Amino acid sequence: MKKATRQAYGETLVKLKEHKDLVVLDADLSAATKTDIFAKMAPEKFFNMGIAEGDMIGTAAGLALGGKRPFASSFAIFETGRAYEQIRNAVAYQKLNVTIAATHAGITVGEDGGSHQAIEDIALMRVIPGMTIINPVDDLETEAAIEAIMEHDGPVYLRLGRLAVERIHEEKNPFVIGKAETLTKGDDGTIIATGLMVQEALAAQKKLAEQGINVRLLNFSTIKPLDEELVIQAAAETPWIITAEEHSVIGGLGSAVSELLSEIRPTKVVKVGVQDKFGQSGDPERLKDHYRLTTEHIIEKAKRLASSN
User: Fold this and answer.
1) Which one of 44, 53, 237, 245 is the catalytic residue?
2) Model pTM?
3) Active site residue 53
């Protein structure tokens, strides 16, 4: 089954529409962010703020101060870019319960092109004190993450995708913010992946196992706070780590893992991600191949690391 995490976002909001504090805001992109589903079912709780992300975040902050739990929705490139000051000063500085729900993240926005492909959004949000960052792998995890966010204190950056992705979970499991998930066990190396790169990493793990290379695969849907215990355990029990993300190799998951291990347990870390380049217009699958964000490229790096030990 394939479903985009942005679709799961809209559907989950509808399931939670009876929550007395839930409100949803959008920057005139509700058909794309899928908040239009919620708007039809609970129009009194939906606010279209127009093409004005800064105003939307400021309004969300005000609603949060009034006791509401706003989900402010737009494309990742606009929400983290245009509204950065408001996210920093109006929301995070005051530790408000605002969820910045950003869809269309990464290069798989596809034909919308480099101007709309956010590959630096995680880095921007990571540096903000107290910001929680969640990047779900599939529709079931998206639903569980939103349920967890409703009980969470403080600002959250929820990163969602345009592209429909395979479901890797058979059922919805409770989502614990700050805890990663071990998908496969192995001692030859570790792959730490997030978002849709988990699907690519899972396919790589299976093919590597067929070739006698048994890798541990970890799903890091929470990027901040990082599950430091699981990273350190992987570094202690396996000789190398590959990180995989649909984001720049600068400032994202790979950087977070490397920063931790450089201080605690120096370990060989190889990053699969966008290599300091902008995106470009094209078919999402062809773009993944162009930017080396595929199963084959993960396998290539894993085999090279395995042969060097």
Assistant:
1) 53
2) 0.97
3) yes
